[in-house]
Write a structure and sequence with these properties.
Helix content: 25-40%
Radius of gyration: 20 Å
Oligomer: single chain
Number of strands: 11
Strand content: 15-25%
Shape: globular
């Protein structure tokens, strides 16, 4: 398949809203979702997070299912986002039998495993919880409400996971293995999640400040987002209108360190360059970059260097929307892809919140309101531990 890859459906849930309209409202009204913990039980109550403002029972009610104690929060978040994406793309029932589903997660069902740790004496309940613990089961639980997909696959490459799911699905379309794919990721907060990042000493006790000289770390978040992608032939046959196109993507691994980004941003540079080459675009053609922008001292400087290597004096608008949602880790690539689609189709720039002072040698992010603004091609970055770095380029649909 040599033609365009179109995105015809998108669904999202995060700390700034359930669904695209709520997400759009929060972005345009500059309402961050970083708050004190409400649903996650932790002794570290001084750490702010980006929680979805719904209990598991409330999400189950929205989905019309029972509040099963063995059902994971990751799966509930995923189902909400997947339902919106499938509805928009007008996909359901028998049609899904020809559609692969590729979902990303790292935490999987860890939230339930922790919550019921003290109830392992209840053997039946413990068995049910353990059975939903692994990442692949999260994908199965998310998909099971909507029908029988052609195949299920799970990707876990830390913070680049959901973007790599998008890339894997696009490769299936290009190779003729499918005409429609559903891709994205879901991730819930857990003690394991929080304590791991806290041990690395990269969690901020204040709302995060990506690309600021005073940045002190990230705020963890949770959420889910999925995209329906299909070939031009499928779009024409089904009579659906694309939201945008996926024109280029790149993945590279610099393997510099287990958790740190390389000083010269080599992996990020290679991923962005590959995405531009595939899209047949020059650096000057990109109007906006949704940066990985975690707010950690290491990431933001490394990404700044990589962006400067790619764009030089023709730097596009850049912002990190993790200052709104928190870092949704394995789901971040698809959550931020949906934000890019909203920004491009509504012609506005999501600001980089809490920024005040530039990094020495760093980029200057978008902080104020810029609307309307002409966005034709946007890039979204997702960089994972171990240097697994991915970039995608989305373009406005001109049909």
């Amino acid at each position: 398949m040599n033609g365009p890859i179109y995105i015809t459906g998108a669904g999202v849930v995060s700390a700034i809203g359930v669904g695209k309209e709520a997400t759009l409202d929060s972005l345009r009204e500059v309402q961050s979702g970083i708050r004190p913990m409400k649903y996650l039980s932790s002794c570290h109550q001084d750490i702010p997070v980006g929680e979805v403002q719904l209990s598991n029972a409330e999400m189950a009610s929205l989905l019309g299912i029972a509040d099963d104690p063995a059902f994971t929060r990751t799966a509930l978040l995923g189902r909400l986002a997947l339902r919106e994406a499938l509805d928009e793309a007008q996909l359901s029932g028998e049609a899904l039998r020809e559609v692969p589903f590729i979902s990303a997660t790292t935490v999987g069902g860890m939230d339930r495993r922790e919550l019921f740790h003290d109830q392992e004496k209840d053997c039946d309940l413990a068995h049910a919880i353990i059975a939903t613990h692994n990442c692949g089961t999260s994908t199965e639980l998310i998909a099971s409400q909507f029908g029988d997909f052609a195949m299920l696959s799970t990707i876990s490459t830390a913070c680049s996971s959901a973007t790599n799911a998008i890339i894997a699905g696009a490769d299936m379309l290009r190779c003729g293995l499918a005409e429609i794919v559903v891709v994205g990721g879901a991730e819930s907060l857990s003690k394991f999640h929080l304590n791991g990042f806290n041990t690395l000493m990269i969690l901020d006790r204040r709302p995060c400040r990506p690309f600021d000289a005073d940045r002190a770390g990230l705020n963890l978040g949770e959420g889910a987002a999925y995209l329906v992608m299909e070939t031009a032939a499928s779009v024409s046959r089904r009579g659906v209108r694309p939201l945008c196109s996926l024109d280029g993507y790149g993945n590279a691994c610099d393997a510099f360190h287990q958790t740190a980004s390389s000083p010269n941003g080599e992996g990020a540079f290679l991923a962005m360059t590959e995405a531009l080459q595939m899209a047949g675009l020059e650096a000057a053609d990109i109007q906006y970059v949704n940066a990985h922008g975690t707010g950690t001292p290491n990431n933001d400087l490394s990404e700044s260097v990589a962006l400067q290597r790619v764009f030089g004096s023709e730097m596009p608008f850049v912002s990190s929307t993790k200052s709104f949602t928190g870092h949704t880790t394995s789901a971040s690539g698809s959550v931020e892809a949906v934000i890019c689609i909203l920004a491009m189709n509504r012609q506005f720039l999501p600001p980089n919140l809490n920024w005040e002072t530039p990094i020495d040698g760093g980029i200057i992010p978008v902080t104020g309101s810029h609307s309307p603004v002409e966005l034709r091609h946007v890039m979204s970055n997702a960089f994972g531990f171990g240097g697994n770095d991915s970039s995608i380029i989305l373009s406005r649909y001109e049909g």
